[in-house]
Amino acid sequence: MSARPGVGLREVARGWRWGGRQLTPASAEPHRLPQVGREFPTAWARTPSGRAARAAFLAGVMTPLLHSQLTVSVAGTEVFDDLGEQPVLIVANHASHLDASLLLCALPPAVRSRTAVTAAADYFFESTWRGLSTALAFATVPIDRRGGAPSSTPLDLLSDGWNLVIFPEGTRSPDGHRGRFRLGAAYLAINTGVPVVPVGLRGTYRAMPRGRSWPIPGRPQVSVRFGKPMRPADGEDVRGLTARLAAEVDRLVTEDETSWWASLPRPVGPDGRRVSPAPAAARAAAPAEGGGEPARWRRIWAATEPPAPSRPRSPWD
Length: 317
Hints:
Layout: H1 5-15, H2 48-69, E1 71-75, E2 89-92, H3 98-106, H4 109-112, E3 115-120, H5 121-124, H6 128-138, E4 140-143, H7 153-159, E5 163-166, H8 184-192, E6 196-202, H9 204-207, E7 221-226, H10 238-257, H11 260-263, H12 280-284, H13 296-303
Parallel strand pairs: 1-7, 2-5, 2-6, 3-4, 3-5
Antiparallel strand pairs: 6-7
């Protein structure tokens, strides 16, 4: 009795080397030097003429456009008053293509004029026109996220007095839930000694999630909340600082959707330390009792719930 045709085709497809991968295991292949990502020239965008053009675009075009499509609230910009001219790392959660433009437009003009944004080289700089336009409009610099040799560009920018925006998740959230923070921002902070300004972005996933090239109708509520500058503690390693940065970004999102008092650390974690409560979207998408990862639809549903406008609340609430 002959096998069913569909079963045979599935067996062939399962054994076919679709990507052209060799049968030799990686451990037996000859040693190869790390591949250095292609450096896309962006220094021209940080010249006086490039900075002037960008300032005019962000203030005269991008800011009015964002405010015409979104209901924007910004809090905490006074944290930059005491930093003066020293460079800082600006670290935020990342859920939408709105994040970089919204964050830049929320910065005070004097800070914005000397701020660059790290961007994925394999996405924003894969074509010349996209690389040139983003470098001019947002002062983006390419970062290779495919595991190549690290670029010296972030270190060079910080040493030249530029602020640097970093999204430690490395990519946009697929479901509005904050992903794991990578170690790059903490590495830069520890090795350069520059302070880190954490930022909580709220509502951007609902306003323009993956797959959309324009915000949803109705001027959805989005908010940008800057936190107090953070510095590495004595003897703190990159993992410890990364965990603190992620917790503070979560706390800022919680503060924006509730109040400062509600965002203060209260529960005690398994290690005996007090931790901040997770944002509402994270709590709604938490695993049910008994463990297991929450369904993706549940996270998306929680992240797309219309956020309430952030406003000062009475300490008696």
